[in-house]
User: Fold this.
Amino acid sequence: MNGCIAIKSYRWKMILYIVLRFLKEGLLLLPPYCYLLFLNQVITYKRLEWLWAVMGLYAAVFAAKAFVSVLLKQVYNRIFPAMVLEAKGNVLEKYSKLDLKVLAGYTAGELKERLHKDTENAAVYWEKKLELWVAAVSVPIMTAILLYLNWVLAVVSFLLLPLSFYITRRIKAKSNVQYQRRREILGKYNDFMIHNMFFWKEVKTNCQEERQQRQFEGLWKELGDSFLKSHIFWFLNRTFLAFKDVFLTKMGLYLLGGILVIYHMATVPALLAFMEYYGGFVNRLLQISDILIQRGEQEASVKRLEEIMKLRIPERPCGLEHFESVEFRNVAFSYGEGQGNVLQACNLKINRGETVAIRGESGCGKSTLIKLMAGCIAPGRGEVLWNGVPMEQIARQELYAKAGFLMQDSTLFNLTIRENLLFGRADAGEEELKAACVRANIMEFIQSLEKGFETVIGENGIKLSGGQKQRLLIARLFMQNAELIVFDEATSALDYQNESEILNLLLQEDAAGKTLIMVTHRGTSVARCSRVIEWGAPFRETFSKSGI
Assistant:
């Protein structure tokens, strides 16, 4: 049932876990028996020589129980935390292999919940399933013991069980509805928080603090209400069982037991031992009840993970040994029904070694062109070809190894400068880091920081200026050592001197066969390129030049 966890690899550990659980359950049956021996032999028949035997048995049971508990914990630690880690790793790997357009169908909050909460619930699902098996076997054994001690008391204690499970089932259904509602609200809340963390500057500059505060309070109230309702159902179930089993059943059983003792149909030791076993019996029922109540939440998590794991990963058999060309062939694209085409009948080819500038008015489709090239979106008609091969047939990892994209919305993470740079190439050494930063003209700034490369830059580089962020993103791009470099307004926050120095470095790469594509409004950038495309609807190539 759980597609993100290879259950077969945990089979023998699970069997050992179940064996130890049964062993522990068996040991838990012995203390009431020791109590019965004490009452019968020592108290009733005054056989003091039995006292030492009973005390020795108590001590042996306690030691065995402690030993088994330690073993059980060790086996537990080798199963369920590993399951959580495996599930998180598999879901994260699945995310990395899915097309960006598929991931775009989920909100950031929903993806986060599946990666964190649902993977943890998936491991809990199997933990509770094993516990349910153990409890399901323990209850009949304890039922037999209760019947053996006094069948009259046992039958009376069982009379309310059907009602108990009926009410538990009803509460479970209500609880599952509330849990699903709470999870949906939590996804909206996470999206809201992620959005506000990334775009806090826009919130402040547009004086939206009060509006965002009201939205936050509304979501928090909804979340609190759903959380409260789901826990009310859980507490209702526990309260009902506790009232029935403690106040009604136990008091009734003691009263009935006293009558049976008076009429010589039971003994005091047997009555007291019965109540000890009955306490354990009730605890097992409460455990089963809790598992059933929470099972809906866990099963829902498992189903959501299965949905993710069943998403199809496109087969892309073709590699990309070197970049030779990228071509748009009769491409059309629209952002939704009822909206006009941003691109229509677009035909364009860029070859290796060219330096191309693309400029045009805002909204004419320049960034859309780059997103199509990067595979962030798919054309509605036509196709994008790399080295003459349709993009849908090329393995994305190989494509991104040869082509480096720096978008307008490229992200920096709340990590150190070093960790952000290593997203460009994870195995890069210290000298390579420094070389990339020198090329991006940010090395001097990094050296001026107290912690240098170990400086944490905040969410999306919040502690950096716009120009510093862009230079750090450019340095990260240089780390890839890509054959094709695509800039979408990547130097807009740089002054002319910094931009000129970076362009010089890029254009020096031309001799080595590097290719540069720039979306830009700056005339200085356009003047440095060998080919300029004036973008419109449809686009037109105004001029092409060389030697500039």
User: Anything to note?
Assistant: The chain has a mean pLDDT of 80. The beta strands are 325-333, 343-351, 355-360, 381-386, 389-390, 403-406, 484-488, 515-519, 531-535, 540-544.
